[in-house]
């Protein structure tokens, strides 16, 4: 994997990498979501990435969607904080309503990243193939959960049955 120059990883007090992402919607109806390709053109992801030192999660999420998907928009609610135990990530996931779509953007030019609009159900299917954790963001959105409910916002205690 190629790392950006001068990229500083930030971690929370439990040692999880701090990340931010946005579910980018075509309209406030939240029925069509924009996903971008990863560094591999046929693998779809929700645009997001690591937070910079001193960066707020909302600002990081907006920056990441601009870099990875070439869109700008109106930042909405925090959907939740999603934990990936395997990769030791905690990702702040926001809802963003797209207001501007760039024809060319940094990652499209540099690494050939693509983007595509999907109905929410279809997006869940394509994300489950390569990034099941990202599909969980949309599953939570469909359930209409608020950020204070579910298992995604509070770090879980060790499971004694594991």
Automatic annotation (TrEMBL):
<feature type="domain" description="Nudix hydrolase">
    <location>
        <begin position="17"/>
        <end position="142"/>
    </location>
</feature>
<dbReference type="GO" id="GO:0005634">
    <property type="term" value="C:nucleus"/>
</dbReference>
<dbReference type="InterPro" id="IPR020084">
    <property type="entry name" value="NUDIX_hydrolase_CS"/>
</dbReference>
<dbReference type="InterPro" id="IPR000086">
    <property type="entry name" value="NUDIX_hydrolase_dom"/>
</dbReference>
<protein>
    <recommendedName>
        <fullName>diphosphoinositol-polyphosphate diphosphatase</fullName>
        <ecNumber>3.6.1.52</ecNumber>
    </recommendedName>
</protein>
<dbReference type="Pfam" id="PF00293">
    <property type="entry name" value="NUDIX"/>
</dbReference>
<comment type="similarity">
    <text>Belongs to the Nudix hydrolase family. DIPP subfamily.</text>
</comment>
<keyword id="KW-0460">Magnesium</keyword>
<dbReference type="GO" id="GO:0008486">
    <property type="term" value="F:diphosphoinositol-polyphosphate diphosphatase activity"/>
</dbReference>
<dbReference type="InterPro" id="IPR047198">
    <property type="entry name" value="DDP-like_NUDIX"/>
</dbReference>
<dbReference type="GO" id="GO:0003723">
    <property type="term" value="F:RNA binding"/>
</dbReference>
<dbReference type="GO" id="GO:1901907">
    <property type="term" value="P:diadenosine pentaphosphate catabolic process"/>
</dbReference>
<keyword id="KW-0378">Hydrolase</keyword>
<dbReference type="GO" id="GO:0046872">
    <property type="term" value="F:metal ion binding"/>
</dbReference>
<keyword id="KW-0694">RNA-binding</keyword>
<dbReference type="GO" id="GO:1901911">
    <property type="term" value="P:adenosine 5'-(hexahydrogen pentaphosphate) catabolic process"/>
</dbReference>
<keyword id="KW-0479">Metal-binding</keyword>
<dbReference type="InterPro" id="IPR015797">
    <property type="entry name" value="NUDIX_hydrolase-like_dom_sf"/>
</dbReference>
<dbReference type="GO" id="GO:0005829">
    <property type="term" value="C:cytosol"/>
</dbReference>
<dbReference type="GO" id="GO:1901909">
    <property type="term" value="P:diadenosine hexaphosphate catabolic process"/>
</dbReference>
<dbReference type="GO" id="GO:0034431">
    <property type="term" value="F:bis(5'-adenosyl)-hexaphosphatase activity"/>
</dbReference>
<dbReference type="GO" id="GO:0034432">
    <property type="term" value="F:bis(5'-adenosyl)-pentaphosphatase activity"/>
</dbReference>
<dbReference type="GO" id="GO:0000298">
    <property type="term" value="F:endopolyphosphatase activity"/>
</dbReference>
<keyword id="KW-0963">Cytoplasm</keyword>
<dbReference type="GO" id="GO:0071543">
    <property type="term" value="P:diphosphoinositol polyphosphate metabolic process"/>
</dbReference>
